[in-house]
Design a protein that fits this description.
Blueprint (H helix, E strand, L loop, with lengths): L3 H13 L2 H8 L3 H15 L4 E2 L6 E2 L1 H25 L8 E6 L8 H11 L4 E6 L2 H9 L5 E5 L8 E16 L20 E4 L17 E4 L2 H9 L4 E5 H9 L3 E3 L9 E10 L6 H10 L6
Parallel strand pairs: 3-4, 3-5, 7-8, 7-9
Antiparallel strand pairs: 1-2, 5-11, 6-9, 6-10, 6-11
Helix pairs in contact: 1-2, 1-3, 1-4, 2-3, 5-9
């Protein structure tokens, strides 16, 4: 019969690339990890790794087993968290990470509703880039995040989409790019780009460097100010840029292409050890109204 230890050794080997690296990640001896994998192969009556090269490579059988093993381990982790918190009281402090690029005008109504139902909860708010907020949730610095969707998030984080925000490319009206029409995106490489990046230098999946000359910030309002000063072009949420477009300080990047912007989904994320608790269910339910007209 398969054991959790066998599946952990198998998945860790795949994710780290070797038995020795898997052993370090699991804080076990390499011989123990290797034996767990061998025992799993015996139980499955199939070879899960091709060991002929320097590093183990998944066989076709291993590739079939991997997603099932990952799902089972994730469910096992949820079970452990549930068992650990059966006798615990609901958290008395709730820390929410907010990406400043997301409009938060309705947040006060949501907080009032939460406070009415859970009057003893202390709230803390942190602002950061979406990628930094994912790290906050993963490390327990925050318990709920409001972020722009990312293609990759840790498996222990639950997410729910609550709407979308339109982004477009902007440049100061005084910038050289405002005086010409770009016939292709390659022409943007001739000018400095202003780009969002997390504090650990990771870029969002939709904030990609196009130009070889890039300045970075972890805050959309800093990007806005840099753009207003003529330091480069950037991708900004429309709701942040609109008033500056209206007063003539910013312009939509002139382009032959009608639509070169981006519709970014907004997600609420929580670590799954908390997702089933009433206060977090209430918060998720309320946040569904954050972007409604």
């Amino acid at each position: 019969m398969y054991s959790i230890e066998q599946l952990e050794a198998f998945v860790a080997t795949v994710e780290t690339g070797s038995f020795s690296s898997a052993a370090r990640s699991l804080h076990k001896a390499q011989s123990v990890v290797s034996q767990h994998v061998i025992n799993l192969e015996i139980d499955c009556n199939a070879s899960l790794f091709d060991r002929s090269g320097r590093y183990p490579q998944l066989t076709s059988a291993g590739k079939k087993l991997l997603p099932h093993a990952q799902v089972l381990l994730a469910q096992h982790q949820r079970l452990r968290y549930c068992a650990q918190t059966l006798e615990q009281q609901t958290l008395s402090e709730l820390t929410i990470g907010l990406d400043e690029g997301i409009p938060l005008q309705k947040l006060s109504n949501i907080i009032n509703e939460l406070e009415a139902n859970f009057p003893n909860v202390t709230l803390e708010f942190l602002t950061a880039s979406s990628i930094d907020i994912i790290d906050m949730i993963d490390t327990d610095r925050a318990v709920t995040g409001i972020i722009f969707s990312e293609l990759v998030i840790p498996t222990q984080i639950d997410f729910e989409s609550i709407g979308s925000i339109k982004f477009d490319m902007y440049v100061a009206s005084s910038h050289a790019l405002a005086q010409q029409v770009c016939d292709n995106l390659a022409s943007l490489k001739l000018h400095r780009q202003l780009l969002m990046r997390s504090r650990n230098t990771k870029s969002s999946s939709f904030q990609l460097a196009v130009s070889p000359d890039v300045w970075y910030a972890d805050n959309y309002y800093i990007l806005l100010e840099l753009a207003l000063q003529g330091h480069g072009w950037c991708l900004l949420p429309n709701h942040i840029a609109n008033s500056y477009v209206d007063n003539g300080q910013l312009v939509l990047l002139p382009s032959e292409f009608k639509e070169i912007g981006w519709q970014a989904n907004v997600d609420v994320i929580q670590h799954h050890r908390y997702s089933s608790e009433p206060v977090f269910k209430q918060l998720r339910h309320s946040l569904r109204q954050l972007l409604t007209p």
